[in-house]
Amino acid sequence: MADEQQNKESMKEAIETLNQIVGSSSTPKTIKKSITDLIADLNNDEYSLSVRAANTISLLDDVTQDPNMPSYVRTQLWQAVSKLESIRE
Questions:
Q1: pLDDT, tens digit, for every residue of 35-82?
Q2: C or N: which end of the chain has fewer Cβ atoms within 10 Å?
Q3: Contact 56/37 with Cβ under 8 angstroms?
Q4: Which burial class, exposed, middle or buried, applies to 86 when counting CB atoms under 10 A from its CB (0-12, 13-18, 19+)?
Q5: Cα dist from 44 to 15, 38, 48, 83, whole Å
Q6: For 63-84, b where at least 16 C-beta lie within 10 A, e where not — what string?
Q7: Cα–Cα distance for residue pair 42/27, rounded to 1 Å
């Protein structure tokens, strides 16, 4: 199943991007906490990949609205959203 493999690869890349944001010393603590929670949700196998991706996209949209967020972090979050949007059933 090539599609399933592509979905898993997209999920992995999105999680790696989110981990980079959390690991950055210039990311505000409140944003790190939100993203850490989202990473945990993405790794939870209770729901399908597409459901986890859709839920995370919705929550990341809220996170990107934070006025305290540096612009380059917002750009990285959009990159993660782009990867998650490529996940299909």
A1: 999 999 999 999 999 999 999 999 999 889 988 889 999 999 999 999
A2: N
A3: no
A4: middle
A5: 12, 10, 9, 18
A6: beeeeebeeebbebbebbbebb
A7: 20
Burial 17-54 (b: 16+ CB within 10 A, else e): bbeebeeeeebeeebbebbeebbeebeeeeeebeebbe
Nearest alpha carbon to residue 81 among 24, 9, 13: 13
Residue 61 tokens read as 């949209």
2-23 vs 71-85: helix crossing angle, rounded to 10: 170
Locate tokens 């972090």: which residue? Answer: 73
Q: Which two tokens stand for residue 32?
A: 């790190």
